[in-house]
Amino acid sequence: MQVVQDEDLLLALLNSAPIVDGKKVDNLPGSAGRELTQQFGGTGSQTEIAHLQRMRNALHDVIRDQADARAALDSLLRDAFLTPEVGPTGIKWELQTSSDERLAVRAAMAWSEVTERMPGRLRPCANTECNLFLIDHSRPGSAKWCSMSTCGNRMKVRTHAHRRREV
């Protein structure tokens, strides 16, 4: 398993449904989705995109701690498993699943790895009008926004304006 690449896959998948002009946009269908899948070794087939959409929605719900989210994620992963391959340097684990489900399962495995290795560091952007996620790699673990230049600045401007109105 390639943790760094799969962490990038996880964020790319989670952030493939941004809010644009106040509406949630699904970037997986069409050329953007094909580019995303090909960047991470997929084919961009319609079936693969459909699996990625379902996995993204399930992971959104799990990360946001929605009711029944874990059951939905479990059902998406039910047929995937790892098999060991013993080599001269140790055991290598090989993911066994259909080629159309591989990227979706890898994203779920990356979510599991990140939440185990860095509890609480994978979270939604603190801007309630944003649908993006971040993995907080900062030392204090205090990152709040998907991007300081967009959501961070917007939220700071709003907070400042709100304080000025109160004075």
TrEMBL record:
It holds the Pfam family zf-CGNR. SUPFAM superfamilies: Jann2411-like. Residues 121-164 form the Zinc finger CGNR domain. InterPro entries: ABATE (IPR010852), ABATE_dom_sf (IPR023286), Znf_CGNR (IPR021005). This is Zinc finger CGNR domain-containing protein. It comes from Prescottella equi ATCC 33707.
